[in-house]
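User: Need the bound-state model for pyridoxal-5'-phosphate:
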Amino acid sequence: MFKVENIRKDFPILSRQVNGKPLVYFDNAATSQTPQQVIDVIVDYYSNYNANIHRGVHALSQEATDLYEQARYKIQAHFNAKHAHEIIYTSGTTHGINLVANGFSALLKKGDEIIVSALEHHSNIVPWQMLCERTGASLKVIPMNQNGELEIKLFETLLNQNTKLVFVNHISNALGTINPIEHIIKKAHEVGAAVLVDGAQSSPHIKPDVQALDVDFYVVSAHKMCGPTGVGVLYGKEEWLNKLPPYQGGGEMIAEVTFEKTTYAALPHKFEAGTPNICGGIAFGTAIDYMNAVGFDAIASYEHELLEYATEKLLEIEGLKIYGTSERKTSVISFNLEGIHPYDVGTILDKLGVAVRTGHHCAQPIMDYFKIPGTVRASFAFYNTKAEIDVLVEGVKKAKMMLS
Ligand SMILES: Cc1ncc(COP(=O)(O)O)c(C=O)c1O
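Assistant: Bound-state model below.
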């Protein structure tokens, strides 16, 4: 039974004060908070298991290896990957995207086409631009509309026999729009293109089934899912991961090294050069256990309630405009007060203990589309409350009074 009062007790940071006021943490789309269960695992790891993995015959190394590999199985089960070796540990979403973009350098040629969406985070734009520069491929963009939704009919007109890759986020970090990735994947596959879905913003709210989606690559960051920073995973279909060359060279990713020739390790180690974030991987497994114990259905329905409540209350403020008004959106509200810079609103909210994000949210093309410098973004998690939303709303009213 979902009880937010009980859940909040798991997050020690939620009881701290900021600027003399109880913290109201609404910057969850940037990073989520960490439950005690995950903190305990991190402390336990460094207190009892710390060792390098995969190489040692001694007990500590073997125990750390077991914990790290068990976490990979948990992550595999969570995303419903067919094989554990389709789960590649990374340092986060950005690393996962760059790994794939780098690998495709060897597979693309001039004349090939790549499609991205107008709703992307810079992490899912810049690596593809760099890939185009390296290979001579060209980049096409799925446009968006005033609601912050992708123009799917126009996407279909961009597809042709030259389309090799399609990149789209599952949920927009700037607006919260949930994109119709099932349809995008199906249509892209009809012309033989591979699809990478950026799941950085969906994974905290939705439990994706990569086999049911038939997606080729899916990338996430642990720190958006109650886990630590500096770790994430790339899911890739085995056939694609076998086709891509290694990303980085080094220890762990080789089968045999001589000065004449090196052969590479099998998946997943081919893509995991060097000593990884061992503790981070283990703690990511615990974070996934934690979120599953709360339950993704309960999380989605509670967060939707928060979204509706906050939308209604904020829209009562005259001169407040919300950007991203799709019917299909998650618990993110991007807004501006008429004639007031988002940074100023964010600064006043901070004085009241309310943490929101202001700026372009690493999604400048979206801001350009709306012809604004940025927005104030309040993003809610399952441990937030309606009472906290009331504090935000009062804070926004105060900011409006002070800055008008
Ligand atoms: C949609 C999206 N993609 C990619 C990223 C980059 O994630 P990371 O910084 O963890 O690599 C973010 C982070 O906010 C994001 O929201």
